[in-house]
Write a structure and sequence with these properties.
This protein has 17 helices and 19 strands. It folds into 2 domains: 174 residues, 2-enoyl-CoA Hydratase, Chain A, domain 1 (Alpha-Beta Complex), CATH 3.90.226.30; 231 residues, Rossmann fold. The protein is α/β, with parallel strands linked by helices. Helix 7 packs parallel to helix 15 and helix 14 runs antiparallel to helix 15. The relative contact order is 0.15. It has a 6-stranded mixed β-sheet with strand order 6-5-4-9-12-13, with helices on both faces.
Length: 423
């Protein structure tokens, strides 16, 4: 079988036909236009009234938008939201936009204009969230378990907080979207880290693609107590075209969106494989983002198996978190020990264990990237290879000539569905 990757730099590989279980790819599609999807969601909110009946003249509205690591076409969704707010009597001076960056780097002016549209940049105050600027955070509340909720001070200004984002399968939260626009979106490390670390000790297959889980419970509580009271969440393809959309209450609308995501991105997988070849196309500005594809790959990998990841990563490993490359991926217990020593924070540790669970605890892995050099991939904890074919040849030597092989194409948002719980 001659297989070609979606990246020009990666070329193609030859996979023995007798070993190949199949090539699996989500094929999301919509029966209606993008504008029809947007219009329907805005006019049929879930668990809340339409925005024009939700906000009132004299109230301040804070819009939270995700960043350029997400495909949400905010500039095409925003006009419909602004029309609703205008109908509610909200002037431009009472609307602000806060970019929910989490712990990602700040967006440039060009990136902001591309994400929001030039008109929004001209009409509204636009602010990049910075999780490290403690003076711009305030203690909004505490959770039922005593977790302090530190959020950007712009939230205190607002009477209504509306989250604009997208919903995809997610390794930590089960699904992205909903309250994630607040945590980690506009929180400080004290809140963000504790939320992420809740995943520790939970099997990835019990989180990924499950909307009800301990991490999501914390996200929902934090978001609601921080003031999030409305969401507009898209389900898109990897090019950012809106396939479906939900709007309304942050929890009720989000759960409705998760059902739509499962329909678009769920893929039936016959069995786990010894070797899983996958790429992170569309979700790999840096490896901090590209790691999201390792979770579905790991779910599809047998214990003791090998994953081969192909990812572009033009910004390297992580611009905001150099500790990832400094310390690399180790067994999960070792990651916990280093975190408790203060070598890195809980958010970094949670990132690390996503890879560690797959390539250190349960199996091994190769990383082929045009943005991460082979020496740095080895430093991270991957085995050495310069091409996908070299990685496959090495993997076959390790696992033997009868090893089963699976390919996951554009795996960053793929949701593996098994007929039985065989992992």
């Amino acid at each position: 079988m001659h297989y070609t990757f979606p990246y020009a730099f990666a070329g193609s590989i030859e996979i023995p036909d007798k070993n190949l279980l199949g090539i699996f790819e989500a094929r999301p599609h919509s029966s209606q236009s993008e504008q029809d999807s947007i219009a329907w969601a805005i006019s049929h909110p879930v668990g809340a009234p339409c925005l024009r009946d939700f906000a009132r003249r004299g109230e301040h509205v804070l819009l939270l938008a995700d960043d350029n690591t997400r495909p949400t076409p905010v500039h095409r969704i925003l006009p419909s939201i602004l029309t609703e707010l205008e109908a509610a009597g909200i002037p431009d001076t009472d609307i602000r936009i806060l970019m929910s960056l989490g712990t990602h780097r700040k967006m440039t002016q060009g990136e902001l204009a591309a994400k929001l549209g030039p008109e929004a940049m001209r009409r509204f105050k636009v602010v990049n969230h910075n999780w490290e600027e403690l003076e711009n955070l305030y203690l909004a509340a505490t959770t039922s378990s005593g977790l302090p909720i530190y959020v950007n001070k712009e939230a205190r200004w607002a009477d209504h907080i509306i989250g604009l984002g997208c919903i995809f399968p997610h390794a930590v939260a089960g699904f992205s979207g909903g309250g994630k626009i607040v945590v980690p979106g506009i929180t400080g490390e004290a809140t963000c880290g504790d939320m992420h670390w809740t995943m520790y000790g939970i099997r990835p297959c019990d989180l990924y693609g499950h909307e009800e889980n301990p991490v999501r419970a914390i996200i929902d509580e934090v978001a609601l107590k921080a003031g999030l009271d409305y969401i507009v969440n898209a389900i898109t393809d990897l090019e950012g075209n809106v396939l479906d959309m939900v709007a309304g209450h942050p929890v009720a609308a989000h759960r409705a969106g998760c059902k739509l995501v499962r329909r678009h991105y769920g893929v039936q997988i016959p069995a786990q494989a010894d070797i899983v070849i996958f790429d992170s196309w569309g979700t790999d500005i840096e490896y901090w983002q590209a790691i999201k594809a390792i979770t579905p790959a790991g779910i599809c990998m047998k214990d003791g198996g090998i994953v081969i990841q192909v990812a572009s990563c033009p910004e390297g490993v992580s611009m905001s978190h150099p500790e990832v490359l400094e310390y690399g991926y180790h067994p999960v217990a070792e990651v916990e020990r280093m975190m408790k020593q203060g070598l890195f924070n809980k958010s970094v540790a949670a990132h690390m264990i996503q890879a560690s669970e797959v390539i250190a605890d349960r199996g091994k892995g190769f990383l082929i990237s045009s943005g991460v050099q082979p020496s740095d991939a080895v430093r991270l904890g991957f085995l050495h290879a310069t091409t996908a074919q070299e990685a496959l040849n090495s993997a076959m030597k390790i696992k033997g000539p009868e090893a089963t092989i699976m390919v996951l194409r554009k795996a960053g948002d793929l949701l593996p569905l098994f007929s039985s719980d065989n992992y």
